[in-house]
Structure formats: C-alpha cells, structure tokens
C-alpha cells in the first residue's frame, strides 16, 4: 500500500526507514523487527522513529541535517527536519524530532511515496 512520506508514522515509518537504509527487517504482528546478529535468528523491535538509541545514531550519520522546534506550532508539525546536501534538499515535519527526522531521511532516499505492507497501516 502506497503512503505519502509526510503521513508515515509508527511501524509504517520504521519499516520505511529500514527500506531507506537497506536494512534487513521482518514484519511480525504489526511490528518491525531486526536481526540482533547475522549469526542468530533472534529479532528485536526496530523503532528508530521512537527510540533515541536507534534513531539518534541515524540522525548523527545524515550529512547536511538540520532540526528546528517551534513551541507555538500545531502539535503535529512543531518539529522540522531539513536535509540539505549535494544530493538534494528535503524538509519534513512531525510531532517529535525523531518522526520529522525519519520522514526526511525516507523522503531523501525513497521519495514522496513509499510502499508499505498493509499490516503496518
């Protein structure tokens, strides 16, 4: 199912981030999981749009990343993530810094629409 990047949230956004980063994940019970090691079948929750331990290093690796937060803005758009580098210029908004940043990353790699498994929508 195609979803606009600026509407991605929760597990659908996490799945799109995995696609954008070419990471191996699986969808299980409406959640996105990643392998803890290439040598085991153990999987853990993949949630870079809500977990700073996962999303923070992703943001740190983005070249040309800028973030802004408006306290007097609407709750759904109070955070702005901007990626500007030699590859292009992308701006996304969200209710939290991680959501805005992950949306910007996804847009920069996959475009304005992403094909998401229906069980994640």
Ordered list of secondary-structure elements with their pairings:
Elements: E1 2-4, H1 10-20, E2 25-28, E3 31-35, E4 43-45, H2 52-61, E5 65-69, E6 79-85, E7 88-94, H3 97-110, E8 113-115
Antiparallel strand pairs: 1-8, 2-3, 3-4, 5-6, 6-7
Helix pairs in contact: 1-3, 2-3
Outline the structure in words.
- The chain is α+β, with helices and mostly antiparallel strands and 121 residues long.
- It has three helices and eight strands.
- The strands form three sheets. Strands 2-3-4 form a three-stranded antiparallel beta sheet, with helices on one face.
- Strand 6 and strand 7 form a beta hairpin.
- Helix 1 crosses helix 3 (97-110).
- The chain starts with a strand and ends in a 6-residue tail after the last strand.
